[in-house]
Amino acid sequence: MPFDAGFSDYNAERLRAADTLLLGRTSYEGFRSYWPKVAEDMTQPAVEREISRLNAAIE
């Protein structure tokens, strides 16, 4: 998968438009262990911090 700035920008765009995030168990476990700490990590790109915050805010 092309994990680059364009990919992250697209993910953020889709999350901004979403009101529900549906994940399978394995994906959820990966998200749960990775994304929460990204929100406050200033070494991460702004778009990654936004994705982290959006993941937490969406049902």
Care to give the gist of this entry?
This protein has helices at residues 5-17, 25-34, 46-57. The chain has 59 residues and is an all-alpha fold. The model has no long low-confidence stretch (mean pLDDT 93).
Describe the structure.
With 59 residues, this protein is mostly helical. The protein has one domain (5-57). The chain is 59% helix and 0% strand. It has three helices and no strands. It has helices at residues 5-17, 25-34, 46-57. Helix 1 packs parallel to helix 3 (46-57). The N and C termini lie far apart (25 Å).
Layout: helices, strands, pairs:
Elements: H1 5-17, H2 25-34, H3 46-57
Helix pairs in contact: 1-3
Number of strands: 0
Range of strand content: under 5%
| Biggest sheet overview | none
Radius of gyration: 11 Å
> What's the structural domain tally?
1
Structural class: mainly alpha
Oligomer: single chain
Distance, first to last CA: 25 Å
Task: Characterize the overall form.
Answer: globular
Helix content: 55-70%
Point out poorly predicted stretches: none
Instruction: Give the rounded overall mean pLDDT.
Output: 93
The number of distinct helices, counting runs of at least 4 residues, comes to 3
Listing every helix as H and every strand as E from the N terminus to the C terminus, the arrangement reads: HHH
